[in-house]
What we know:
Blueprint: H1 4-26, H2 31-54
Helix pairs in contact: 1-2
Amino acid sequence: MYNPxxxxxxxxxxxxxxxLNLYLDTHPDDKKALSDYNAIQCQYEKKREMxxxxxxxxxxxxxxxxxxxxxxxxxxxxxxxE
Length: 82
């Protein structure tokens, strides 16, 4: 069942981990930023897995396992929920 709070949490964590990823590209020796990145990435992965177990695949390109039959084509798409 779709959970809008879970989706919002995934979006927030995804933004934060991407932002830290970009920061670390130019500040690779920042231990605090790397620690924050690893912690947030772990939270993101747990929330994403929770979403996928209850709703369906969220991302493609080898990041999401699929049940049989191939779920990526099944709707609704993550952005189609209201």
